[in-house]
Automatic annotation (TrEMBL):
Lineage per the UniProt record: Bacteria, Bacillati, Actinomycetota, Actinomycetes, Cryptosporangiales
Record flagged with keyword Chloroplast: no
Protein name: RNA polymerase sigma factor
Listed GO biological process terms: DNA-templated transcription initiation; response to stress
Family the UniProt entry places it in: Belongs to the sigma-70 factor family. ECF subfamily.
Organism expressing this protein natively: Cryptosporangium phraense
PANTHER family in the record: ECF RNA POLYMERASE SIGMA FACTOR SIGG, RNA POLYMERASE ECF-TYPE SIGMA FACTO
Residues of the RNA polymerase sigma-70 region domain: 20-87
Domain of life: Bacteria
Signal peptide segment: none
Pfam families named in the record: Sigma70_r2, Sigma70_r4_2, SnoaL_2
GO function term, MF aspect, one: DNA binding
Keywords of the record: DNA-binding, Sigma factor, Transcription, Transcription regulation
Domain RNA polymerase sigma factor 70 region 4 type: 139-190
Domain SnoaL-like: 210-304
Length: 326
């Protein structure tokens, strides 16, 4: 009986789906690590599978189907970032203090944990340095976007997926020496500038997060800041503005407190292996609740170490309705 590969080469779409289907979600995760945008990752994953379908006759089976797909996906990601256009960035509301810095990753989007649950638990290669879940945190993905594209690809292939240098070089069409040099430079950059990876929340951290969400819903600025680490980061993609430290966080939230719209409801979810919630504001005219933002919180050392606010448009990936009836 012909193998699925042979049937797919003869044009059997069902055989092709059976051949590549087990890798679809992990390819999407790979593209997300490369691009930092779930929307772009979805698009490039589709391009990858289309390229695999049309190029199946050229697949010589010298590597596994999985490795072949990763090669296509990685190079498609590199091409996508080179051709990407700058996206418009919102401005800060009047009266909000100047940010501590301007972030370079305005296109960053969150990744729903529900999609991660569909990724097969494949052990990375023996050379991997990061756990697969650790390598999907916002801190890690943000750090990846600040690396030059070729260094980013090399580090993800080597240190996250665990491919050896020879395979990585072949996938990127570069020499082993070039792959090793790119990896060395990428690791050095991360050692100098990468933010710490957040903890996996413990039972104690869950209690902390409950107190933080209560303070956030009441918009009790002092209570919120008391639960933050000294080096907390506040970010709000696609706006590039970043606030670093408890004092900056206090000034930022205090500036918003005067004109803020009360939060009527917070719906818990999870993003990038971290706790998150979508919060809703009530429309005084209609009484309807409208999704205002998706907040992702990170914990490190028993305190809130990062709070990232995303625009309500990302809520659809988390099953958060744009409008609710109370």
């Amino acid at each position: 009986m012909p193998s699925p590969l042979e049937l797919a080469r003869r044009g059997d779409q069902h055989a092709f789906d059976a051949l590549v289907g087990p890798y679809r979600t992990e390819l999407q995760v790979h593209c997300y690590r490369m691009l930092g945008s779930l929307q772009d990752a979805e698009d490039v994953t589709q391009e990858t599978l289309l390229a695999a379908w049309t190029g199946l006759a050229e697949f010589e089976a010298r590597s596994s189907v999985r490795t072949w797909l990763y090669r296509i996906a990685t190079n498609r990601c590199l091409n996508h970032r080179r051709s990407a256009t700058r996206r418009p960035q919102p401005t800060l509301p009047a009266g909000v203090p100047a940010p501590a810095s301007l972030g370079e990753v305005a296109w960053l989007q969150p990744f729903p944990d529900a999609l991660l649950d569909a990724v097969p638990d494949r052990r990375p290669g023996p050379e991997a340095r990061y756990e697969s879940r650790e390598a999907i945190t916002l801190a890690f993905v943000t750090a990846m976007q600040q690396l030059p594209p070729r260094q980013r690809a090399t580090l993800i292939l080597r240190d996250v997926l665990g491919y050896p240098a020879k395979d990585t070089a072949e996938m990127l069409d570069i020499t082993v020496v070039a792959a090793n040099n790119a990896l060395k430079r990428a690791r050095a950059t991360l050692r100098r500038s990468s933010p710490p990876i957040p903890d996996t929340p413990s039972k104690e951290d869950e209690a902390l997060l409950e107190r933080f969400v209560d303070a956030f819903l009441a918009f009790d600025v002092d209570a919120m800041v008391d639960l933050m680490s000294d080096d907390v980061w506040l970010t709000m993609p696609p706006a590039p503005y970043e606030y670093h430290g408890r004092d900056a966080a206090h000034r930022f939230f205090s500036a918003l407190a005067a004109d803020r719209q009360p939060i009527a409801l917070a719906v818990p979810t999870r993003a990038n292996t971290q706790p998150a919630w979508g919060h809703y504001h009530a429309d005084p005219a209609t009484g309807l609740l409208h999704l205002a933002a998706v907040e992702v919180v990170a914990v490190r050392g028993g305190l809130v170490s990062a709070l990232t606010r995303f625009e309500p448009e990302v809520g659809r990936w988390f099953g958060l309705a744009p409008t609710l009836r109370p």
